[in-house]
Amino acid sequence: MPQRPRVIILSTGGTIAMIARGSDAGALRLGAKALAAAVPQLEAIADCETRDILAKPSASLTLADQALIGEAAVAAAQTADGVVITHGTDTLEETAFGLALLTRIETPIVLTAAMRRADQPGADGPANLLAAVRVAASKAARGAGVLVVIDDEIHAGPLIRKSHSFRTHAFSSAPFGPIGYVAEDRVRFALVPAAPPPLMRFGGGRPPIVPIVEAGPGLERETVAALAAGGFDGVILSLPGAGHVAAEAAPDLGRLAERMPVVFASRTGAGETLCASYAYAGSEIDLIARGLIPARWLDARKSRIALQLALAQGADLAQTRAIFDGF
């Protein structure tokens, strides 16, 4: 009989680990061992070891927590054929992107989650965990980078985003879509990511403070003044269209960019910031000339993780710009 693959399951909290008791509907009560025990079919797929890393709702996870999860995954990969991380759905996309920046190993790192608690009708956690272990144990997943497996779909970690607040089919990699799927006991990859994102590291210490500010029509100069006075380490702007802002705010944003990195992303949810198409005041050409950094294909949430990591590893303005040029 062929030897089964070895998969290590790391738990970090989230809805998949929650059970309601009385009026307490959000208690984190299930560790990795209990999650695996609820899916007896795992025994036919892999020898599973379980480890508890964190127990938090994912909105409470910090950049340091993401780095800790990445370190735990890399350590587990030293003795496993695949690693599965159970996680909350709220900020799954940030952790998946962060791990794609912080790790570079052949061993599959697969994140999964649940939209319903284990005690709710139609709980999706067990099926998602089963599919995630199948993918982590698959030789086809080796070298594919950080993956997210949920609702029988395989997504590239850098592309995933939560697209619905409560449905079980809550994740998307639009406009590209999933790169594979799980059908019964089969793992199928239809696409392979062209290239990994830049490799970065977390330098430790206090995570940099980087707020996201979404602008609509007529971004007020007072908002920019408040950002300048806020004691931040950097700022992410989520801007209309391909990266455009009110003309009146552009000079103030340029002065802010002299003091700290200011990265602007498109708020559209698809496409990327332009760099050389529009030249009016407040356009992307104008903002770049004033020292702002285009996020390229990253949205504001992913841009925040990238900028925090850049600042945490001590990158100066030129190095930060070069990092974003790599996206």
What this model shows, in words?
The protein has 327 residues and is of the alpha/beta class. 27% of the residues lie in helices and 22% in strands. The strands form four sheets. It has an eight-stranded mixed β-sheet, sandwiched between helices. Helix 3 links the parallel strand 5 and strand 6. Helix 2 crosses helix 3 and helix 8 packs across helix 9. The longest helix has 15 residues. The N and C termini lie far apart (45 Å).
What ranges have pLDDT less than 50 throughout 5 or more consecutive residues? Answer: none
Q: How many distinct helices?
A: 9
**Spatial arrangement of strands, main beta sheet:** 4-1-5-6-7-8-11-12
> Between the first and last Cα atoms, what is the distance in angstroms?
45 Å
Strand content: 15-25%
Q: If classified by CATH, what would the architecture of the largest domain be? A: 3-Layer(aba) Sandwich
Main beta-sheet strand count, sense and barrel state: 8 strands, mixed
Overall structural class, as computed from helix and strand content, comes to alpha/beta
| CATH T-level topology of the largest domain | Rossmann fold
What portion of residues is helical? 25-40%
Order of helices and strands: EEEHEHEHEHEEEEEEEHEHEHEHH
Rg, nearest Å: 21 Å
Quick check: average pLDDT?
96
Let me know the number of strands.
16
CATH homologous superfamily title of the largest domain: L-asparaginase, N-terminal domain
Number of domains: 2
Q: Which shape, going by the Cα principal axes?
A: elongated
CATH top-level class of the largest domain: Alpha Beta
